[in-house]
Amino acid sequence: MAKQHIIALDYIRGLAMLGVLGIHTGAYSLANPAVNPHLFALLEIFTRFSVPIFFFVSAFGLFISQPLNTQYNYKAFMSRRLKTVLLPYLAWSLLYMLHYTLASGDTSIWERPLVYEYFLFGLASYQLYFLVILVWFYALMPLWRKLVGWIVKTPLTSLLLLLMAQIAFNYYSSYELKPDFSNYYLNLAIQHRMNYLVLHYLFIFIFGAVCAELYPQFLAIVQKYSRLVNTTFVSTLIGMLFFYYYLVYFKHYSLEEAVNTIHQLSPIGVLYTAGATLFWFKTFSKRLPDWLSAVLGRLGACSYLVYLIHPIVMYYLVIQLNQASIPLTAPVVVAFYLSTLALSAGLAVITSKLSSYIPVVRLALTGVTSTQRTARQKAE
Description:
By secondary structure, the chain is mainly α. The protein has one domain. It contains 18 helices and no strands. It has helices at about 5-30, 35-45, 50-65, 75-105, 115-120, 130-140, 140-150, 155-175, 185-190, 200-215, 215-225, 225-250, 255-260, 265-285, 290-325, 330-355, 360-365, 370-380. It is globular, with a radius of gyration of 21 Å. The two termini are about 20 Å apart.
């Protein structure tokens, strides 16, 4: 069976990367006490599908290229995936830790047991936890393949049950579970559970896998029920915004407290992620204007490196703003976001080009081997 290239996945990667930049821009905007709550909602609430949808895309790509009815070699699979994810994770963790030490003079992060915690939980930079969770998803792939094989027999009922279980588990983990046990290591595991526990994103990952296994049927359904898909997306987005504004204006939460309550793991957040996933997949499966296809394609192609690089760009942009005594007003926040995108994309291209001369460096920073690079160039 020939491998299928689903162009919608490339576009979703690009869009999700824009969303991740928005979330992190929103966090920086809180430095201004008079931050605009509506711009903050755009950056932090509308974009909340961005990280979970990456897991959907990853699972979809894995199962569309190696479906259940093909031979599966776990050892070969892990060898490839550890090169594309684990090596970049370790390399970028080292780079961020070195940068932190050089910038602050603090060497405590290299001491045991803290250094172990940094690598185990993705603490070197705030975006790296995604790669930790992804490695765990890969490591447990035989389990997911068995689960998907069972779900595809009754996909609608099984996915609905899994969705309800996901909402219940995420609610308990997000709002009830506290690291107040007597055992130090158990408390540590609970404290950092969001950085490694795949159960928080199990539904969206399995959903991606099931949609890939039943791709023709899935595509036909989202196109046939296009109006329902649109309604689900809009209604869940309204639900997210309703709770956000309710917490801010009626419960008098701070913006940070509100977004830490209404996030992608909240009940409405899980539903919004599912609705956004269906909506964007349906939208990007249609023919788009050439200019939009080109933009989304470019963004998707560089999304991995932009995801890895952008925190350092934001760090130095904030330093420049502080030195110039420029407050993060709404126009400045928008300019900050666009500058981060432009500079991160530029650095991603430069990093990719320069590292291509040293295969080991390219593999460590990008997870791409020379063979993969040649295959991509031929495909283009």
